[in-house]
Amino acid sequence: MSEKVVIKVNDNGSYRITGDVELVDAEGNVFETKKSFSLCRCGHSAIKPFCDGTHRKIGFESAPRANKENP
Q1: For residue 14, which of 2, 36, 38, 57 is within the disulfide window of CB 3.0 to 4.6 Å?
Q2: Where does the Iron-binding zinc finger CDGSH type domain start and stop, copy by copy (predicted)?
């Protein structure tokens, strides 16, 4: 059985993906990934869909929290 995939929403930053996951584009092509990688959430990365840290330079702010009202 494979390890559970965890997607962490980093405050003011990226989505951190950890676990055995396959990332594919709209045409079904597979992106090369490691066991843990970050996806862009701010929309300004030069290497989308991956994060390059640009969120820090542009002052991206977002810190959502999970709760029972937001599935």
Answers
A1: 38
A2: 22-61
